[in-house]
Each structure stands twice: as C-alpha cells, then as structure tokens.
C-alpha cells in the first residue's frame, strides 16, 4: 500500500491525480512545526493511555531523528509523498515500526495542518515584529541625525508647509507602530489550539486537548470542530497585516524614489544598494525600492487570492484550503526581505541638506501668514482670501513672498505690521506648530525621546513572547 487512505480503493489512483493533488513541495516548509505538533500529540496520547510509554518514547525518538535528518538535508522525499504530514509519518513508521502507526490516533490532517500553520505563524509574527522594530529604530536614528533639517511637506505632491525631516521619519514610526499592534492582536487570535477535533466532528477517543495546548503554549482551545478545520480567519488577518505593512513600505519607497530623482536630489542612495543600466553608463537606479513597491502588489494579489479561495466554500474542510500556503509563505517572505533590505538602505542613505534647503518655496509660508492674520482678529475665510491675493501678486510680479515690503503687505490689509517678518521664516514656521502632533522642534524632540523608550520596551516584549514560544513545555 502506497497511500494511507488507499484501503477503500479498488483501482489504483491515477499518477496524474497524485501529481495534481500533492502539496509537499510547498508544505515541506512546515516540517519542524509538524514534528513539534506531533511530539505534543504523542505525549498527550501517552498521558491519556491511548499509547504506552514505550510507544511514546519510540515515536518521539523517531520524530527527533527525522528532525535531524531534515536539518542535515538527509530526509528523502519520495514521489509518493503527498504532503509533509504523510511524508513524516511514512518515515516514522519505517524507523520505529508499529509504534509509529499509532501517531495519527485521534488526529486528521485537517486539524493537523491548521496546527502547523498556527505554529509557523506564531514564530513568523515574532520575526516580523523584530524586523519592524529594527526598521523603526533606524528611522529614529535618522530623525536624530537630521534633527533641525526642514523639508517641504507635500500634499498632492505639491509643496505644502515646512516640516522637520525628523517629523517625516516619526510619521512612519507611527504607521509601523499600528502595524505592530495589529500583529500582536493577530498573535492572540492565532493563539487557539486547533488540534484534537479530528477531521470535522471531534473524536470518540479521550483526548486531553488542554494538555496539548499547555505543551504548545496555546492560550485557548477551539470550541467547534466544524469551525476549527475550516477556519482560516487567523491566516487572512495576518496576511492583511503583512499587506498593510507592505503598503506602508511601498509608500515610503515611493518618497525615496522621488527624492532620489535628478530633479529632486534630496537624497543620495548608497551605491551598494542600487543597480546600474546595461546600456546607459551613467545610471544608478533605485531598483530595490521599485521592487519593494512591486512586491507589495504581489502581496495584495495573494491576499485577494486567499479571500477568493475561501469565499465559495461550504463547511467544513475542503481541499481548496490546501492552496492557502503558497500565498501565505510568499507574503511573509516578501515582508521580511523588504523590511530587512530597506532598513539597511535607510541606515546608509544621506540627505542633501543644502539642496533641500534651496528647494523650499517661500509660498509654503502662506498658511502661516493667514494664521497670523487670524491671530489679529481677521476671520479665517477672509485671511485665506487676502493671502491668496498676495500669492497671486507675487506670481504676477515675479516676487518672493518672503521679500515683500511692509507697504506691499499693507496694500492687501492695513492690519499687517512688522511682526509679519517673524512669520516669514521657515524655522519660526516649524516651531510655531506647537499643537499636539505638530512639527515644532519641542514636540519632535519629545516624540524622539518617547520613541526611544517605547522601542526599547517593544523589543523586550517581543523577546518575552519569543521565550514563551521557543520551548515545548513538559
Ligand atoms: N495538505 C492538506 C492541506 O494543506 C491537508 C490534507 C487534508 N487532506 C484531506 N484529504 N482531507 O490542507
């Protein structure tokens, strides 16, 4: 007999069917999680008396041997291996004989695969969180390095108001903090043990699911067998989180790409993270940044794919669910590799402070002038109109708003006095944004200090999650 389910078949299953339905090339990535889950399952089977202590010992030793074989690249996948679960079980039976045949007691691949995915995700969420923290720390370093540098902020990609470059970096720290929160929430949602519900109905055997949950560090146990084998909510949520992080990375890359254009030249990307042209000798291109942008698109496709895959399914397990792994693994890998390389690029990117300084239009102070008039008692709608006319006057007469005389200002409103010249200054503009969330140096300095503490705490938190997750409990 080649296939464990072959008993009820009169004819040999077609070779094409096996080729078409197998998933081992992809789910072999879950091998170590599968073994971890099987060891916990074995301990439980022995605890409730479904297998003997001797069986337990043999099975666990066999599983550990397989783990070692995989680690040393000595584990042979056979053409008849359908998926990683059957491949490991096949090898186990070969290694330990009859005892190995007892491993799958009270278990189905339907609950087993959900367990493997959840164990994988627990570990990968922790990895992702660490990569995000590294990226945030790098942004924080940059905001300290360039503290005091003023850049034009953009809306509609048109210059808007002066802000601190540090404020820009902090904006992305905020976005990734929300991403971290989302991953942590998903970590809890994922932390529910699926194993023990069998194929879809539960089992007649006296399994101790609480014990398995304790061994594998799950904080809860699933409540409904039909839901358990069909549920992929946890996975979709995590995939969504990845996609959103990638969208944030893509947005950030887009800014860097724009700042790296010959026209902007706000930044100098490190040579070692750029590529050249096969034809044009002068080119140094930001291909990595472009690829992060495009990989975000692939991730969106993957999320859409899984959502579509789930949408038409009746309860409970359907083989369609097997196709969830490729987009899942790919998306996690995309996010990890993008975070890793972008962190390095940001670390080594230099800002052309002089160029940035010369590129800010004095019109970015127009809103400050309008607010100056508001402080003098002019209703905002009116002050907006007055400043709009001043801007127009400057454009028509080819003048900088910053170099108008008091008389010229007074032509638009008698309320102007010489205090206006304090307003016409980029540093003062920035430092006047004292409202909570504004770009004043005092605010930004405070935020930098706050994030230094927060990110330290974040790292410690993730380390504790990692520790709790790393060992199989006794
Ligand atoms: N490889 C399958 C998956 O990834 C698990 C096997 C379930 N197979 C079955 N015929 N019920 O979902």
Q: Can you give a write-up of this model?
A:
By secondary structure, the protein is mostly helical. The protein has three domains: 6-102, Fumarase C, Chain B, domain 1 (Orthogonal Bundle); 109-353, Fumarase C, Chain A, domain 2 (Up-down Bundle); 362-431, Fumarase/aspartase (C-terminal domain) (Ribonucleotide Reductase Protein R1, domain 1). Helix content is 62%, strand content 4%. It is built from 19 helices and six strands. The protein has helices spanning 15-21, 24-27, 31-47, 53-71, 84-96, 109-145, 165-190, 209-215, 225-230, 233-259, 287-311, 325-348, 353-359, 366-375, 380-396, 406-412, 420-423, 426-431, 441-470, and strands at residues 150-155, 158-164, 192-193, 220-221, 267-268, 350-351. A two-stranded antiparallel sheet has the order 1-2. Helix 6 (109-145) packs parallel to helix 12 (325-348). It is elongated, with a radius of gyration of 30 Å. The model has no long low-confidence stretch (mean pLDDT 96). The site of arginine has 10 residues, from helix 6. Arginine (ARG) binds at residues 23, 27, 83, 109-110, 113, 317, 319, 321-322.
CATH topology of the largest domain: Fumarase C, Chain A, domain 2
What is the multimeric organization of the chains shown? single chain
For the CA atoms, what is the radius of gyration?
Answer: 30 Å
Q: In which range does the helix fraction lie?
A: 55-70%
CATH architecture classification of the largest domain:
Up-down Bundle
Name a few traits of the molecule.
mainly alpha, 19 helices, two-stranded antiparallel ribbon, 474 residues, 4% strand, Fumarase C, Chain B, domain 1, single chain, Ribonucleotide Reductase Protein R1, domain 1
